[in-house]
Design a protein that fits this description.
alpha/beta, Enolase-like, domain 1, 2 domains, 9-stranded mixed β-sheet, 3-stranded antiparallel β-sheet, 14 strands, 15% strand, globular, Enolase-like_N, Enolase
């Protein structure tokens, strides 16, 4: 394996017009890999720290020049010329160099950019697709195993948005389309297109508004309440000619942490406690064709997550995002408590590929499903599609079927499907 010759970086803009980091890793044989990292809006408190400049005169303090400088200087000086036989060796060296529990000194955005750029450079050096390099990383991680055969993750695709991804017109964050019967990625996307266009037409007729979109491309009309999002989603599925719950199902991202205050959930007109919140979500699941529920409770409401999991049962994914933060320690706690049965995996929540792979392995060993997820602030880089294929993710959550930073991932999955002929993962059960 060649050594790292040079690490460079650039401050670029994400899909919300905010700065993020792009890194380039050049190996000693001349092989080059470049990668860009995303940034979240709906972030958990346990996430690794994105390093921002804090200068209010520039991008409102959100600049990333410090993170870029760390790649050009300290990370380049510490890593160049050293032999790294595996991704784990590189990532461990960066974590040790940072020396903080949440990557606060050098920045998780700097470390992840280098981690990804090294992985892509290594794939180029080996002459293999990036998803094969990701599979190798997984196989090298804590006894993990690469998928026996590659598959394409089933997409869960934003239809309607509220919360922090839109104007906060309703508290819950997203209602997503699950093309449950689609047999190929091409069919999944064409099915979703039909539902999305039906929903856009519904927005014009019912809310007298154009198809204005939220951070991840979801439609965001002025819903009067959360239940209206679900009712309109079912109406759009029917208008597109599909049977709700059979051909097309729904997933919801409740993002409860953002409306949890003083021990109460401020979801409707009257705030309520955790047990009442569980009952609200259970009623939704019983009334609508919902197959996945993300963050139905707040990130630190650990006491009640096991009851949520019990109430939702086996036919619905109890999906943890803010609860778990792709953090192995939090995932292990959730496994022991029986708090979830699915992980939303976001690599930038933990800060390096190797640590994210550890989180994936833990979830898999517990028998969990894994949804590989993008962030609200994305770039046109498509490495996430390869990651979901290489690690054998069950689902992929990228956003809607609009906006180039979302389509880059879907188009990469289409290209892999055509080139390799991999099948689409079936929905569990």
């Amino acid at each position: 394996m060649p050594t790292i010759r040079r690490l460079t970086a650039l401050e670029i803009l994400d899909s919300r017009g905010r700065p993020t980091v792009q890194a380039t890793c050049e190996l000693s044989d001349g092989t080059v890999g470049t990668a860009s990292v995303p940034s979240g809006a709906s972030t958990g408190t346990a996430e690794a720290l994105e390093l921002r400049d804090g200068d209010p005169r520039r991008y409102g303090g959100l600049g990333c020049r410090k993170a870029v400088a760390h790649i050009h200087q300290e990370l380049h000086q510490a890593l160049s010329g050293r032999p790294f036989e595996t991704q784990q060796e590189l990532d461990q060296a960066m974590v040790a160099l940072d020396g903080t529990p949440n990557k606060a000194r050098l920045g998780a955005n700097a470390l992840l950019a280098v981690s990804l750029a090294f992985a892509r450079a290594t794939a180029h050096h080996r002459g293999v697709p990036l998803y094969e390099q990701f599979a190798t990383i997984l196989a090298q991680t804590d006894g993990g195993q690469a998928p026996a055969s590659f598959r394409l993750p089933r997409p869960t695709i934003n239809l309607f948005s509220g919360g922090k991804h839109a104007g906060g017109q309703v508290p819950i964050q997203d209602v997503l389309v699950v093309p449950a019967r689609a047999r190929t990625m091409d069919e999944a996307l064409s099915t979703t297109y039909a539902v999305y266009q039906a929903a856009a037409d519904l927005c014009r007729r019912k809310y007298q508004m154009r198809a204005l979109t939220a951070d991840e491309g979801g439609l965001a009309p002025p819903f009067p309440h959360a239940q209206a999002m679900l009712e309109d989603a079912v109406a759009a599925i029917r208008a597109a000619g599909f049977v709700p719950g059979q051909e097309v199902a729904l997933a919801i991202d409740v993002a409860s942490t953002h409306f949890f205050q003083d021990g109460r959930y401020h979801l409707g007109e009257e705030p309520h406690d955790s047990l009442a919140q569980i009952q609200v979500v259970r009623q939704w699941v019983e009334a609508y064709p919902i197959v996945s529920v993300e963050d139905a409770l707040a990130e630190d409401d650990w006491e009640h997550w096991p009851e949520l999991r019990r109430q939702l049962g086996e036919r619905v994914l109890t999906l943890g995002d803010d609860l778990l933060c792709t953090n192995p320690a939090r995932i292990q706690r959730a496994i022991e408590l029986g708090a979830a049965n699915a992980l939303l995996l976001k690599v930038n929540q933990i800060g390096t590929l190797s640590e994210a792979a550890q989180a994936f392995v833990l979830a898999r060993r517990a028998g969990w499903q894994v949804t590989v997820s993008a962030r609200s602030g994305e770039t046109e880089d498509n490495w996430l599609a390869d990651l979901a294929v290489g690690w054998g993710g069950d689902q992929i959550k990228v956003g809607s079927i609009t906006q180039s930073e979302r389509l880059a991932k879907y188009n990469r999955l289409l290209a892999i499907e055509v080139a390799a002929g991999f099948p689409l993962v079936a929905w569990p059960g």
